[in-house]
Amino acid sequence: MGSEGGQQVTPDYDQTDVVPVQSEDQEISGPRGIWLYGEVGTGKTQAMDLFFSSVPIERKKRVHFDAFMVSVFAKIHDWHKHPPSSRPANYHVTELVARDMMREAWLLCLDEFQVSDPATAILMRQVMQAMWRRGAVVVATSNRAPEELYKAGFQRELHSFVDLINDRCEVMHLRSKVDYREEMLKDQSVPVDQDTYYSLDNPESASAFVHRVAKLFYGRELNSERLKVYGREISIPRAAEGIAMYTFEELCGSDAKVPMGPADYLVLCQRYHTIVVRGVPVMGLPQKNEARRFITFVDAAYENKVKLIMSVETSDPASLFVTTHDPASGNPDIMHVEMVSDLMGTTGRGRLASQHDIMKLAIFTGEEERFAFKRAVSRLKEMRAEG
């Protein structure tokens, strides 16, 4: 992968000039990467981590896809703050972002690659295409083959991105139906005073949760704190010495003035080594907004090795998410509509989709949610076993 025609390939990541916006069909040369996909728990992340640790180069980066997207939007925001006169003329902001990314690393390993909305597909196509033109190599893991990334609409926008992925990556399928993460944890038991998952439908477990939290905060002064996230603040209602505590509604609810998003959860999990969440309910597709936020939070906690202690309505993590309802019969997915509108507004491309087009995104098959639910359950079990 690191050579072409017998010659060692090293991208010019120190180049200061930006490349101009070029045609979609311009040929891209250079080493190809890998797209590794398969079911939850089949070893995709472990395989990528082994590859990443063994590659003897300095300009490399391994990051969860959510964190990568947060950094992309942060760089876009930074470039938009520059006065127009200070930016190169006739260059799209995504070209500038790609240049900044390449200065950090030309080998990019992305874990849990997903496309949840057309805005992500459009933006990623532009940024990744610009990076590939500069010589970037991308190794990504995903639960899906490129052609199955996003089935809920806007196929025209996604089609060219899928073609790019197939052109620039060798697609490999880990064909296993066994969740090895769960298999390894099957016979492990956790002492109740070291557990991280407490069932509210079991009086003994509920009482143990109270004692665990009381012991955790004993001798520490609880205060509310605030963190700045890209120009706005998020509230931590109860915190002490690297430990934070939320109710589920405070962390993932829709009633807050500004519900939390991926950037908030990422900063939160980088700031606190232990997070307590009280009263996690069973969630079905009618509560998919809250479920999505919770899954995003779990991903951030998992990636940042946060100790996550929860009280939950059900004794089995696999029962946390109910996926039997038809989402098309429920209310419109307001969170998703607002997210797509915000992202398109941020990138200055809101004119690409009408309000009618955006509202159609409320109609889901539930397949995307089931993939995410399964991954979250698997990770919660691993985090519980680690204590």
Could you please describe the fold and organization of this structure?
By secondary structure, this protein is α/β, with parallel strands linked by helices. Helix content is 41%, strand content 19%. It has 13 helices and 15 strands. The strands form four sheets. It has a six-stranded mixed beta sheet, sandwiched between helices. Strand 5 (107-111), helix 4 (118-133) and strand 6 (137-142) form a beta-alpha-beta unit. The longest helix is centred in the last third of the chain and has 20 residues, at 367-386. The chain is globular.
The strand order across the widest sheet is 8-14-12-11-10-9
Question: What is the radius of gyration?
Answer: 22 Å
* Helical segment count: 13
Q: What string gives the helices and strands in order?
A: EEEHEHHEHEHEHEHEEEHHEEHEEHHH
What is the arithmetic mean of pLDDT?
A: 77
Beta-strand segment tally: 15
What is the approximate shape? globular
Strand proportion: 15-25%
Distance between the termini: 39 Å
Query: Uncertain segments of ≥5 residues (pLDDT<50)?
Result: 2-23, 325-365
The major sheet is characterized as: 6 strands, mixed
Helix/strand class: alpha/beta
Q: Bin the helical content.
A: 40-55%
Task: Summarize the topology.
Blueprint: E1 3-4, E2 7-8, E3 33-38, H1 44-54, E4 60-64, H2 65-81, H3 93-104, E5 107-111, H4 118-133, E6 137-142, H5 155-168, E7 169-174, H6 180-185, E8 197-199, H7 203-217, E9 223-229, E10 232-240, E11 243-247, H8 248-252, H9 262-271, E12 274-280, E13 283-284, H10 288-303, E14 307-312, E15 321-322, H11 334-346, H12 355-359, H13 367-386
Parallel strand pairs: 3-6, 3-7, 4-5, 5-6, 8-14, 11-12, 12-14, 13-15
Antiparallel strand pairs: 1-2, 9-10, 10-11
